[in-house]
Design brief:
Elements: H1 2-15, E1 39-43, E2 46-49, H2 50-61, H3 70-92, H4 99-119, H5 127-143, H6 151-160, E3 166-167, E4 170-178, H7 181-191, H8 196-206, E5 217-221, H9 228-235, E6 246-248, E7 251-261, E8 264-265, H10 268-298, E9 301-303
Antiparallel strand pairs: 1-2, 1-9, 3-8, 4-5, 4-7, 6-7
Helix pairs in contact: 1-3, 1-5, 2-5, 3-5, 6-10
Length: 317
């Protein structure tokens, strides 16, 4: 859960960067040793420092923090403030992580980064910062209970937003990939009128593609998911048809279109799980936002942005 949270924050922060300004603007001095102990947030008489903020930033965007613009750093600071308020509330209520939760978290972290990555002090996220993120998620889960979504609400949402549930044309395709054009032409001429079993056997014995062991089965694709020069060949095929030899930087391809699913609207029953998930996510975000508003008005807290090592830019949506 904490890893997913960190991943989402990385995307948010990356969106705030200004690539065209990187070469012109100096790196943000978030690690300035003279500022680490300066208080940037006060909550109920307790101080939160630049050092705490730096831990959060590194846990969120890693060493890419030096590439952040002041806008990106400001939005990260906004997120950090909200999380510290929630963290203060969680600890004041006595909410803590169990050993099983910590163990599960550490196992997920090792799976995501590898043991070598965990040991790399310069690149590994601070475990304490990530565990705090996990505690925030746990507390929000306890405080902000999702409102159930009824079948009627799902049906009404589907009726309002049917265009969101249009399924594009899809094709299931197999290939034989070869490094020599002459051999590719020979095999294609032999298979052009053969059945699917002959194609699969030829793929297993002749293809140098990574899917050869699967009889050449590449998977299911929609428009835009394949290289344009190959997509043009594949989508022009009829179901069961074998293509002429197609050339790419990978080699010489022989494609077979195994199945085509036409563009269509998902039925209400097919779309229901996706509709329900979207409604639950929307309500969850609204509930968290409402809880944060309530928390901000009930706690005694203040910002000390003059102590930040960059020019804080307020968020004015």
């Amino acid at each position: 859960m904490a890893l997913a949270l960190a991943g989402a924050a990385v995307l948010s922060a990356s969106a705030c960067r200004r690539d065209d300004a990187r070469a012109e603007s100096p790196s943000l001095a978030l690690d300035d040793p003279k500022r680490q102990e300066l208080v940037v947030l006060e909550v109920e008489g307790g101080g939160v420092t630049n050092a705490d903020f730096l831990k959060y930033v590194r846990a969120t965007v890693g060493e890419a923090w030096a590439e952040l613009s002041p806008e990106g750093a400001s939005r990260l600071f906004d997120d950090f403030v909200e999380r510290r308020l929630i963290l203060w509330k969680a600890r004041s209520r006595g909410v803590a992580l169990t050993e099983d939760e910590l163990s599960g978290f550490r196992n997920r972290l090792r799976a995501a980064m590898g043991d070598d990555g965990i040991r790399e002090a310069q690149t590994a996220p601070d475990p304490e910062a990530l565990e705090e993120a996990l505690l925030v998620e746990k507390f929000l889960g306890l405080e902000v209970q999702g409102v159930p979504v009824t079948d009627q609400e799902v049906a009404e949402e589907y009726g309002r937003r049917k265009a969101d549930y249009l399924q594009p044309e899809r094709v299931e395709v197999s290939q034989i990939l070869l490094s020599a054009e002459g051999r590719a032409t020979e095999i294609r001429n032999r298979l052009k009128d053969a059945g699917p079993e002959a194609f699969r056997l030829a793929a297993q014995s002749e293809s140098v593609g990574p899917e050869a062991a699967r009889g050449g089965a590449m998977g299911t694709f929609s428009p835009g998911q394949l290289p344009p020069e190959l997509e043009k060949v594949i989508f022009a095929l009829k179901e069961g048809e074998v293509s002429p030899v197609a050339v790419s930087s990978y080699g010489y391809h022989i494609f077979r279109l195994d199945k085509r699913t036409d563009f269509r609207l998902l039925t209400a029953a097919e779309a229901a799980p996706l509709v329900r998930t979207r409604l639950l996510e929307k309500r969850g975000k609204a509930a968290v936002a409402a809880y944060l508003d309530e928390l901000k008005s009930s706690l005694d807290w203040s910002l000390r942005v003059e102590n930040l090592p960059f020019s804080y830019q307020r968020n004015n949506p």
